[in-house]
Amino acid sequence: xxxxxxxxxxxxxxxxxxxxxxxxxxxxAGPACIIAVFVVxxxxxxxxxxxxxxxxxxxxxxxxxxxxxxxxxxxxxxSEAHAALRTGAYIEVEGVVEGLVPMPYEGHAEExxxxxxxxxxxxxxxxxxxxxxxxxxxxxxxxxxxxxIAHRDGVILRVQIARPGAIPMK
Length: 170
Hints:
The protein is α+β, with helices and mostly antiparallel strands. The chain has helices spanning 9-12, 19-44, 49-87; strands spanning 3-8, 91-96, 98-101, 111-115, 118-122, 146-152, 155-162.
């Protein structure tokens, strides 16, 4: 059969910023926000300046930590997905899409389907470093399609869909 590649993690999911760059961005954004607040309060309300000089840095530091951890976690997942596809450290399954349960447009659930006895689940609201393009948001997976899926540890690295009218190759 002939297949069209509709998702390839190396092509369609570029690496995101490494954790060190996210930390630098947080380190620069915090002081910039503090300076902006200070300037506005110096002009508008000088009496609130002392309170904000204490609370704004605390809030920024409290928010920067989880943001950096989230970016670092996603960067690690994406890096592992790229490495798996590049080095051939994946499993490929081929067959018909069965039991497709689309994610609702609003989210709050994962999209699920099975190919060749292997069940896949994903959502753009829970990034895993691989394919997450759901049917409700225009994704390519359809019930009854003949597909080839490259995956590792449940993360979809490549999706190939059989061309309409394709015949098995000898």
